[in-house]
Amino acid sequence: MRQLIGPYLRPYWKQVVLVMGLLLIQSVGNLFLPNLQGDIINNGVVAGDDGYILYAGALMLLATAALSVASILAVYW
Q1: Which end of the chain is least crowded, N or C, by CB within 10 Å?
Q2: What is the pLDDT along the chain (77 residues), one digit of tens a residue?
Q3: Residue 3 burial (CB < 10 Å; 0-12/13-18/19+)?
Q4: By the 8 A CB rule, do 10 and 27 touch?
Q5: In the chain, where does DSSP find H-type helix?
């Protein structure tokens, strides 16, 4: 298999590494968002801490924005 696609991918190794890194960011981010949602429920809603809910919500928005940028860049490359 390596001999079949290796010569064709060799000139594009930087782009392949970039796309794989962006996909890794997307995967980690998609696993991070449900944890944040659980933290909002466990630490914010149950405890009645509005400040924590806003903080975790803002963190979720930042993570979603980063995921969007990574997704757009991965599709572009």
Answers
A1: N
A2: 567 888 888 888 899 899 999 999 999 999 999 999 999 999 999 988 899 999 999 999 999 999 999 999 889 88
A3: exposed
A4: no
A5: 2-9, 13-39, 50-76
